[in-house]
Write a structure and sequence with these properties.
The chain is an all-alpha fold and about 130 residues long. The protein contains six helices and no strands. The longest helix has 18 residues, at about 15-30. It starts with a helix and ends in a 31-residue tail after the last helix.
Length: about 130
């Protein structure tokens, strides 16, 4: 007990030990409470078009892929707001469709009946954006 009193008095009454302990404790608290670097959990995933995601370059000879971006009844090429393609891939698809039509790989006005049962890349009745801009 006497030893405890001496140690207690020595720690409490010596100003150097007391100030050293206080400073040391205050720096530890600052390091423990510092902000942690992490990614923002609320950021959305970067949207990519399906052709960029799968690394597909449209080609005029691949008329089965190109027919997905053309209306089966009118032959109209769907816009970006319906297909969800990026601007560069949409321009490439339009260019390749016209090239395939000029080379007689694809018809101008209607889609081949064998391609009507192909899996859909997008839903033309439910566009991504309801407007084209």
């Amino acid at each position: 007990m006497a030893l405890m009193k001496r140690l207690f008095l020595k720690i409490v009454y010596t100003p150097r030990a007391l100030s050293y302990n206080v400073r040391h404790l205050s720096t530890e608290v600052a390091h423990d409470d510092s902000p942690v670097e992490m990614e923002n959990p609320f950021t959305k995933e970067k949207r990519q078009c399906i052709l960029c995601k799968l690394n597909i370059t449209p080609d005029y000879k691949n008329y089965r892929l190109l027919s997905q971006f053309q209306s089966p009844y009118t032959g109209r090429i769907y816009g970006r707001h319906i297909t969800g393609l990026c601007q560069t891939k949409q321009a490439a698809v339009e260019r390749e469709i016209t090239k395939a039509q000029n080379c007689a790989y694809m018809p101008y006005y209607y889609k081949d009946k064998t391609f009507l049962k192909d899996p859909k890349l997008f839903d033309p009745e439910n566009p991504i954006r309801s407007h084209r801009f």
